[in-house]
Amino acid sequence: MDWGMANRINRIIRPDTGRTLMFAVDHGYFMGPTTGLEKLDETVTPLLPYADSLMLTRGALRYYVSPKIDTPIILRVSGGTSILNKQMLHEGIVAGIEDAIRLNVAAVAFSIMVGADYERDTLLAFTEVIDMAERYGIPTLAVTAVGKELVRDAKYLSLASRIAAELGARIVKTYFCDGFEQVIQSCPVPVVIAGGKKIPEREALEMAYQAVQTGASGVDMGRNIFQADSPIAMVQAVRSIVQDDSNVDKAFQLYNDLK
Ligand code: 5RP
After folding, report:
1. CA distances for 32 relative to 28, 57, 219, angstroms
2. Per-residue pLDDT tens over the stretch 42-52
3. Is residue 39 flagged as an active site residue?
4. 3-class SS at 173?
């Protein structure tokens, strides 16, 4: 693997643990001022010391994040439809590779819509992004399985994750499910899980625990951190599971103590 590519991946997934806590705050690109991110800087800044990387759009990065930080950035480069649009599962490229380089990002993220009406468009745009990003040693994170109508079972998530990896993704983001080992075993690149809609804190910790114990390389979690009763306590509790191998009881205790 090219040095730059390897270095960027090692900045995202810690080589000493093989794990990562990606903090996702990219929701605004299709959800607008998402609850908890209205003033993105106020939410994100105190949590940054506990995140191994920060996933967001180029607008949010420029407007809300200081260039003095050294947290690796994962830049959302897909979009084009919003939650108000019935065809919201139809994303294209919304940020070019030159801007990704200018912003000094560690990776770019693109959503693929496997099984949706516009599957082909998103897969072809995804490979365009991969070709451009690989030219400069920038890894592409594939975001899979976004969409309310999808049945997020092991069969579907394995299929979407494997397609993403075969097309050239360096990291795959998917959802936790029953039989998650099938997803891990059939995907040749590191897999991280999204948190999804806000659920009770203990359940979110349980999900993160089950995912990493089954072989996930970590989480790319957003709402279950920044919409928690105490985001600063939650990010540390999730971190204890991902990076310190805490069990759920210990992590939940930590959450309550810090909260
Ligand atoms: C959907 C996304 C998100 O915007 C986000 O990164 C998901 O994080 P979470 O589900 O944990 O809030 O990837 O396209």
Report:
1. 4, 12, 23
2. 999 999 999 99
3. no
4. strand
Read off the amino acid at residue 134: E
> What's the pTM?
0.96
Q: Which of 20, 25, 26, 172 to mutate to test the pocket of ligand 1 (most atoms within 8 A of CB)?
A: 26
**What confidence tens digit (pLDDT) does each residue in 199-232 have?**
999 999 999 999 999 999 999 999 999 999 999 9
Q: What φ, ψ does residue 146 adopt, rounded to 5°? A: -85, 135
Is residue 79 within 8 A of residue 45, CB to CB? The reply is no
Atom of ligand 1 nearest to the CA of 29: 4
Report the C-alpha gap between 45 and 103 in whole angstroms: 18
**Domains located in the chain, CATH noted:** 3-227 (3.20.20.70)
Catalytic residue among 148, 173, 197, 259: 173
- Cβ contact 175:142 at 8 Å: no
Pick from 101, 102, 97, 98: nearest CA to 110: 97
Give the residue among 22, 2, 29 at the shortest CA–CA distance from 146.
29
Atom nearest to 195 CA in ligand 1: 11
